[in-house]
Every structure is written in C-alpha cells, then in structure tokens.
Amino acid sequence: MGTLNRILLAEDDPGDVELTLAALAEYNLANEIVVVRDGVEALDYVYRRGLFADRPAGNPVVILLDLKMPRLDGLQVLRQLKADAALRRIPIVTLTSSRENYDLEECYRLGVNAYVVKPVRFTEFVEVVKSLGVFWALINEPPPDGDRRSQSGQPLPGNRKD
C-alpha cells in the first residue's frame, strides 16, 4: 500500500481556505486535504476524537496552521502538539497574516517548522502555498516508520522505542 499524503489545513477564513485548496490541487500534492475551521477541530483531528474519532489512522505529512482562529488559536495548538512526544515530529507551518514579533518568536520557541506571512496579493498567496505543498508533500522525507505510534502514543509492536 502506498504512502498517504494527507495535509491538515487549520484555517477559519473561507477565502483563504478556497485559495489554499486551489493551489494545492493544481499539483495534486496530497491524496487528501482535510480542512478544520478552528484550533479545537485541529486537535480533535490529530488526536482522532470528536467528529474525527473514526478517521483513518496516520498523521498528516504537514499541518498548515493559521494563528488567529476562534475557540483555540494556532499558538495553543502548536504548543500542545509540539509538547506531545508522539506528535511533535509532525511538521507544522504557520500560514498567517500576523507580522507581530511576539507571534514569530513564540512560534519558533515552540518548535514550528516554518513561519509564512500570508501575502495580500492572490498570485503571491497561490505561489507560496504551492511551494509549501511541493516541499512538504513531495520533497521532505517524513520520520521513518520506526517512529510510528499508536493512538495512545505507545510505540506500535515491532517499532523502536524512544
């Protein structure tokens, strides 16, 4: 069975969701792009709970994370995922309109893999998303299977332990 390239997009702005999906679809960069509208849904997806309790196993190849979202913001999502030993290796790219020094510094302190400020112009936005998608879905090598863990965070049988 081939590798499933799943991208999780956590974004509450419908226009940005539409542009991001269009840019990623142009190169068929992922078998599946899952869109969540806030930080609570993002965590529910990754932890396979709530609406996502029955989703297929496996982590996304990358999470594209907006910082300014309702219910739970992107910094809180980033903080929780990077603090979880079973999930911290999932690459997370903030895709945000924030140019605040605090957000930039805090994201890197928490372990974000990349911080991208959303361009205002449509063509720039599409090109940025395409570049991100190509890198994370096609070029970047994900962690080896030996690091896969069960839903509970325990190493799967036959896999190494940290």
Helix and strand layout, with pairings?
Blueprint: E1 6-10, H1 14-26, E2 32-36, H2 39-47, E3 62-65, H3 74-83, E4 92-96, H4 101-110, E5 114-117, H5 122-139
Parallel strand pairs: 1-2, 1-3, 3-4, 4-5
Helix pairs in contact: 1-5, 2-3, 3-4
What is this structure, in a nutshell?
This protein has 162 residues and is α/β, with parallel strands linked by helices. The chain is built from five helices and five strands. It has one domain: Rossmann fold (3-Layer(aba) Sandwich), CATH 3.40.50.
Explain this structure to me?
With 162 residues, the protein is an alpha/beta fold. The protein has one domain: Response regulator (Rossmann fold, 3-Layer(aba) Sandwich), CATH 3.40.50.2300. Helices cover 37% and strands 14% of the residues. The protein is built from five helices and five strands. A five-stranded parallel sheet has the order 2-1-3-4-5, sandwiched between helices. Helix 2 runs parallel beside helix 3 (74-83). The protein is globular, with a radius of gyration of 15 Å. It starts with 5 loop residues before the first strand and ends in a 23-residue tail after the last helix. Residues 145-162 have low confidence and may be disordered.
